Each structure stands twice: as C-alpha cells, then as structure tokens.
Amino acid sequence: MxxxxxxxxxxxxAVDLRPYSKLLxxxxxxxxxxxxxxxxxxxxxxxxxxxxxxxxxxxxxxELCAVGREAARRALDERPYDVQLLGVxxxxxxxxxxxxxxxxxxxxxxxxxxxFALRGQRVHVLSVNDYLARRDAEWMxxxxxxxxxxxxxxxEESTPEQRRxxxxxxxxxxxxxxxxxxxxxxRMVTDIADRVVPEPNIALIDEADxxxxxxxxxxxxxxxxxxxxxxDLEMADLVRRLTPRVHYEVDVDGRNVQLTDAGIDAVExxxxxxxxxxxxxxxxxxxxxxxxxxHVLLQRDVHYVVRDGEVRLINESRGRIALLQRWxxxxxxxxxxxxxxxxxxxxxxxxxxTVQSLVLRYPTRCGMTGTAMAVAEQLREFYELEVAVIPPxxxxxxxxxxxxxxxxxxxxxxxxxxxxxxxxxxxxxxxxGTQDVAESELLAKRLADDGLECVVLNAKxxxxxxxxxxxxxxxxxxxxxxxMAGRGTDIRLGGSDMADRDRVVxxxxxxxxxxxxxxxxxxxxxxxxxxxxxxxxxxSVFFVSVEDDLVANNAPQTRGYEAEGDGAITxxxxxxxxxxxxxxxxxNLLEVHRNTWRxxxxxxxxxxVVLEHREAVLTDGLGDRQLKxxxxxRHAELVEEVGEEEVARAARLITLYHLDRGWTDHNAFLAxxxxxxxxxxxxxxxxxxxxxxxxxxxxxxxxxxxxxxxxETFLEAEAGEDGTIDVSAVGVKRPSMTWTYMVHxxxxxxxxxxxxGRIKGTVGSGESTA
Length: 770
Ligand SMILES: Nc1ncnc2c1ncn2[C@@H]1O[C@H](COP(=O)(O)OP(=O)(O)OP(=O)(O)O)[C@@H](O)[C@H]1O
What we know:
It is an enzyme of class 7 (translocase). One of its GO terms (cellular component) is plasma membrane. By secondary structure, this protein is of the alpha/beta class. Helix content is 50%, strand content 14%. It has four domains: 3-217 and 356-389, P-loop containing nucleotide triphosphate hydrolases (Rossmann fold, 3-Layer(aba) Sandwich); 227-345 and 738-770, SecA, preprotein cross-linking domain (Pre-protein croslinking domain of SecA, Alpha-Beta Complex); 399-575, 3-Layer(aba) Sandwich (Rossmann fold); 619-664 and 702-736, no CATH class. The chain is built from 31 helices and 23 strands. It starts with a helix and ends with a helix. The model is unreliable at 317-321 and 741-770 (pLDDT under 50). Bound molecules: adenosine-5'-triphosphate. Adenosine-5'-triphosphate is lined by residues 78-81, 84, 99, 101-107, 370, 488, 490.
C-alpha cells in the first residue's frame, strides 16, 4: 500500500482503520483458492459464514471479504478495491464510511449488507429517493444472488402486499421517507395482518449525512383527510397589493414575515375599517398571516412548483418534488389561493416521526457518504456514530480554486457567464451548481441569450435526471443543476460510454462551478466532488456575491469593501467573511436540528406510552377486557347477540379509534403549545422547559380518557341483523386517505407571534417617548 494511503489510515477524530488494513493481505491470499470454486460452491462458502453470530471475528471477516470480492468479480465484473473492503469492514462495525464520489459506495454497501444478512440480520438499505433504492437493488441483485442473499426494493407506488414481500427479503432497499411512512402507517393499523414493516435490525444508510443531518430537520408527518378548507381568495388578493418593507418585514433568516404598523393599518382599511386585534373576532388575523406567509415566504419554483393545476412541494434539502406532500394547516390552501388553483383536501396530523427516531429504532446503524467528517460531531451527538475516513483508491488530483467574490449578484453572474464562455470554447465540460430551481432556469436563460446552450436539471424526475447527469462529462457539455439533482449518478469523462475520454482528459476534465456557496461547506464539497472521481482530472470554483443570501444574512457587516472595475473583491478578509457567513449558517442549521430533536424527545416518550398500550389492544385483547370491565351488562348482552369474537373485534376497533383520535388531538395541542411558547420566551424562561411543563400534565390521564370515551361509544353500539356490530354507525371511522406533510421547524408566523411583534413595538415606542 502506498505511503500516502497508509498515512490516511489514522486520521484524528476518525475510526482507526489500521486493524482493518492488516487483514487485506490475508483476504488477497484467499483469492486463488476461491477462484477455483464453482458458483454453487462459492454460494456455499458464503452460507458457512452464517454459522456464527455477529460480530465477525477476524478470521470470518477475512473470509467474508474474500468471498464477497470473488462474488462481485463474477457477478458484476468488478473486483472490489482494497479501500472498498476497508469500507465494508467499517460498515460491519457500525460506522459511517466516508468514501469520496465514484469510489464505489454502492458495491461496498451491498457487501456489508450481505455480511449482515448472512448472519441472520434483516438489513434495510436506506436511500435518499425511490429511484436510487430501485437502481441499487437491481444493480446489486446478481451479487446478492451469488451470496445466497434475497434482495428487494420499495417505491412510492408499491402496494401493501408488495411492501410486505419486500420487507420479508434479507436486504430491502427503500427511501427514508417510504420507510418512515410505512412505520407511521403501521402504527395506525387496526389489524396486525395489515402491518408491513418487521422489527428493525440493521439500518445501512446511503448518503448518510444528507439523511441523518439535512433531512433530520424536517419530521415526516402522516395526515388524514378532514374537511376541505375554502380558498381564501380575498386574502390572497389583498396581500398581493401590499408593498414589501412598507407593509411587512421579513426576518433575516427568511422564516417569518410580519405586518408593520403601516401594514396593519392598510389591511384594516382594506377590510372596511375593522380592528385586526379585536378580542371578539380573532378570525381575521390568522387568515391575513396565512396569506402573507404563502405570498411572501413561499416562492414559486423555489419552495413549490405549479404543475397540472396543482401545487407540488419541492423538498428543499433534496431539491426535488415530493408527491403527496403538503404544508400543514391552512398554509396549503393559502398557497393554492395565491396560485388560483383548486383547493385540495385538508387534513389533520395523525402522527409524525423524526428521521432520528426512525433511525434510532435500529439496534445497529451504519452508512456511507462522501462528506461525513464535517458533521462528525453531530453524527456522534445524535446517532452515536463514528466516522471512518476511507482513503481514495487513486489520489484525488482535482484543482479546487475556492471562491471568487463580487460586489453584486449581477457582477457575479456576468463573471460566471464570461468564464463559462471561455472554458466552453475549449470543449471542456462544465457543471454549474445553483441554489434552487428558479435560479437554474434564470441562469440557463442567460446562458442561452449569450449563445451558450445548456441542459438544466431540476427536481423533475430522478430517473431522467440520472440519464442527463451521466452525460455531463461529454465534450462541450454545459449542465446546470440544483444542488443534489441527479445525485448518486456517476459523471464519466467523455460521456457515459467514455467514448471521448482522452479528449476531455486533455482539456482538464470536468469543470465544476458553484453559482454561490451553499448553506454548509459540506454541500459545497458535494458539488465539488462531482469532478475528480477515481483520480480523474477536474477543477472547481465558486462564484459568490456580497448580495447572496448566505452572505447578506449571515455576515456581520456587508459594507466597506473595495471592488475592482468588474466588481471583484480580492481582499482576503472579505473572502474570510464568506467562510464566516457559512459557519454562521451551519450553526443555525444545527440549532434547528437540535430543536427538532429536543421538542420531539418528550413527544416520543408520550407516543411510546400510547403505542405500547395500542399494541396490547391490537394483539392481546386489552380493549375487550377493559370494556367488559367498564360496561359489563352491555358487553354480556352483545356477546349473547353476536358472540364473543365479534364483540372482541368491535371492542378492538372502538378502543383503537379513541386512542388514535386522542393522539391526533394531543398532537394538535402540542403543535399549538409549541407555537405559543415563543410568547413566554419573552419572559426569559427556557422555552423547552415551558413546553415540557405544559405537555406533561396535558398527557396525564390520556389513557383513562380514551378508555372512558371507548366505553361511551361501546354503550351505543348495536348488533346488526347480519350478526355483526357496525362500528361506523357509532362514529368509528378511519381517514379515507392519508398523505404526508412537509413541515418546517417553524411553519409560519402565528397570530401570537404577530401580537408579540406588536407588543414589542408598543413597548419600544413607549420607551422612546418616556
Ligand atoms: N471495484 C470496482 N472496480 C471497477 N469499477 C467499480 C468498482 N467499484 C465501483 N465501480 C464503478 O464505479 C462507479 C461508481 O460507483 P458508485 O456509483 O457506487 O460510486 P459512489 O461512491 O456511490 O459515487 P456517488 O458519490 O456518486 O454516489 C460505478 O460505475 C461502478 O460500476
């Protein structure tokens, strides 16, 4: 092994790889003998590894890697590199393997998954989207087959039967959201046979930082149909006429919008001289706030797109459209009113789960990604995971230029377009990373105006994007892409067939340009990592302006620089300012993650109590026993009429209904409580303590209350002529459809917060006049 690689094996703060690397020689030594085996003999060798429990001892680890390597060579015509085997061993030990782009994480992950599966564990390989789940499962299927391991995948379209069958395989590939929603839906079943997800064993997470850190800020929420909200066209129309900064102000981080005093006056006047803060009519203010939030904070083509007459959300951390996802409460309808499309059904939150709770269900967790070290502390804090930095198979020779800073956005764009024209003239392929869909389209238009034709990727279709990005290394190609569009797909120099590779290598390989730095350096690195795979030549550079949101919102001061004629700022302290702004932004994101987690910890405890109780009702007849105890006469009568089994069934359904109903209401209470907490924050009390102080007593008596309601319903239940009890006649109904929500830490500025803003304003002016 090269000296440079050896030096990398003992990176501070990361898992020590030396114990693994010591086994590489022994693994290689097994090769000649294994090559002589027939296919079925090789499968038998793999099966022999199943004669012991986890963890693998050193001898078995050598055998597993050697057998796995030989199986991959035969099944995929790819002989795993030593560094990939280091990755496999780190995964089997429950670590996050940091492996750069193009190092072959898919194969390393599959070998580790097979290793777990051979020892009798059920493995869930979690991907960021359905396309990758399916692609990887199908791609690795021949390898699994040689190793005698059953593999399957799940997608959004999978039916419950298909899901059940897929989860029954040894290794199941699924996107995190599909898994999350399956878990949530399983918690609502009224018959055990309807469950799809088995007990969790091993989670192997692809793109681990995106899933565990980026997606963890947004809980997965399952909602059920309730009544339909009316489109509030009047409000949508009214807020459209308001003027930014005169009638409303947006917080620096773009999460809240508030009416100014002038705005309040204008709205009150428009509505015929009403008082928005009238104690007797509190219904108008929330409507104004919703419409304002929809109008100002949610931007078309950034947060959502309008397609086929529907508002479809873009998942920000993933830059793609989410089917069946909505905003909570009236916000969805407010956006629909803003866009003048038909209002869709609204719903109420049935239950939610954070990515963290989802992943922590698994006794063993591991994963891989190109960028883990930057979030090593978070992975440790939230998931008890350590990072193993796997050296590249071939040294990285990409040239990273860093940041070019400009005074204005316009100057930044001019400079980038000029650079694109210059580089493109040589035929060198260019990949430009933008912040969002709208920016991609504007930039593409600008490039086209300058005679530079490009392909745009934006949150449309994963499979299609994979095909496009695969060609981004073609001679003369210009590709514009949002941050993670088309991820997980290799960019080969000279096109996907590498026909033109030599010519592109001569030009310096792929040239990656960032149109602005991202909210975290990790995301910058992900973009950069698109170039320079497997020792390929390549380069990267970021164009930034002082007006970029990242800098404008997070830098302590944005004045006092000296720019050159074209707007370029070369003062090193200003370049440092950009890094600083990014660190501030990273800190904010971490705080959001921490908050999501903190608030959810208590909710998780309460949910645990409900779920345990629910389980006993579902599987052990607890509801029937309780109702028999609470309503003995009615119970006996009904048994007489329809028999014990049917009464037990009805008792189960009635009890589950009231447990679930109660939990839904409690969820709504907690959400409201959390919003209101900000008011008390003014009193310098810790909002989380305040939250817990109220959430705990509110839960007290939860189970007793559900039980009492179940008894009330049970007393009303009647036996029908067909010998069954029709529970729907006594109001026991399940939501007719469910869908998933996208929630933000702070969905929208509530009426309460606007009141706070007003109180603060009053106090402020009071002081100045005193
Ligand atoms: N041992 C190997 N020998 C030859 N080719 C390999 C080997 N391992 C992986 N590859 C090839 O390398 C390419 C990159 O693999 P893969 O997509 O798994 O990389 P990755 O690390 O997941 O990259 P990304 O960060 O883009 O997801 C694939 O075309 C794969 O077939």
